[in-house]
Model the fold of this input.
Amino acid sequence: MLTCLLKHYHPGLVTYRRKTVVAATWKHFQAAKDSAGKSVADIVIEGFLVIVLIEYAVQVMLLCLSF
Done:
């Protein structure tokens, strides 16, 4: 699931240390910002946490239904 998020939000070319490079490290994802100033790294982390929390909630619901 994390790989899918990284591929989906891959920023492509970014400006990092005053050079244009292909995003290949987490620092590159942090350097890529949207118009609101949020980094691609922040977006990936938020998406990952949402998926993990939903999965956790489903597991808790299934556990409660088994009683």
